[in-house]
Design a protein that fits this description.
This protein starts with a strand and ends with a helix. The protein contains 5 helices and 12 strands. The strands form 2 sheets. Strands 3-6-7-12-11-10-9-8-5 form a 9-stranded antiparallel beta sheet. It has a 3-stranded mixed beta sheet with strand order 2-1-4, with no helix packed on it. It is globular. The protein has 250 residues and is of the alpha+beta class. The chain has one domain: Protein Transport Mog1p, Chain A, CATH 3.40.1000.
């Protein structure tokens, strides 16, 4: 089964069945388990014309993506792209849509998108479903003509506490999944960092997704680290995020 992540600028991918945003408790706790919003982050972009925040084309973004070796032993490429994006989804209540990077302002920001790339990985020791613990990870890099709006991250982060549960209906299939969301403690990276854990209860399995989205100048990096019937490894999520940010600097 594939898991689709729904967002606007980056639709959060949920494995085949739905939408997975991060919520949850565990993580690299160098910052409070909140939205990583305005109060604890720089007010100025770290770079808009030079450095990691400069606008990039597809080639530049692709060079920034992490490889399986960046994630540690046991990670390999996932040609099936188990964690993928899907933009067509309706969120109920609508006030929770910003957690999935959806809503009018997110859609407006997406209009200046100039390039997008992704990479997918999995654990080599994943066992066949159902009921087994299996690990999958997706990384997306986006670049935009305009600096990405920082206030959208603040808005999404402020909604986590008010959206412990919400429903997502995928437009293409008509299927609806219920999500549980909670804050995820994660280091503050770039200009803004949004982090949460999403949990989706499926018929025979539970899928938990740690989702981190980082804005730096014109660019965003998103990491979706998902685990069936277990807990995502916070260290792997951080390794993927830091490797991608380091790639943007090159």
């Amino acid at each position: 089964m594939r898991t689709a992540v729904l967002t606007a600028a980056l639709s959060l991918s949920l494995t085949g069945c739905g939408l997975l945003p991060q919520s949850g408790s565990a993580g690299s706790s160098t910052s409070a388990p909140t939205s990583q919003g305005a109060s604890d982050q720089p007010t100025e972009d770290l770079g808009t014309l030079t450095g990691a925040g400069r606008p990039l084309d597809e080639g530049g973004l692709r060079a920034a993506l992490p490889t399986a070796s960046d994630l540690g032993d046991g990670w390999v490429d996932d040609p099936m792209k188990t964690v993928f994006e899907t933009a067509g989804a309706d969120v109920t209540p609508a006030t929770c849509a910003p957690l999935l990077q959806k809503g009018p302002e997110w859609e407006e920001a997406k209009q200046s998108q100039r390039a997008r790339v992704q990479a997918n990985f999995k654990r080599s020791d994943n066992l066949p479903p159902p009921g087994t613990e299996r690990h999958f990870l997706g990384v997306w890099a986006y670049s935009f003509d305009d600096p990405y709006p920082a206030h959208l991250f603040d808005e999404a982060g402020s909604r986590i506490a008010d959206c412990p549960t919400f429903d997502v209906r995928q437009v293409d299939t008509g299927s609806t999944s219920s999500y549980a969301a909670s804050p995820l403690s994660f280091p503050t990276l770039g200009d803004r960092t949004l982090s949460l854990r999403l949990t989706i209860q499926q018929t025979y399995e539970t899928f938990t997704l740690d989702f981190v989205m980082i804005k730096i100048g014109h660019n965003t990096i998103s990491v979706a680290n998902g685990t069936y019937n277990g807990t995502p490894d916070a260290a792997v999520t951080e390794e993927a995020a830091r490797a991608a940010l380091a790639g943007l600097e090159e």
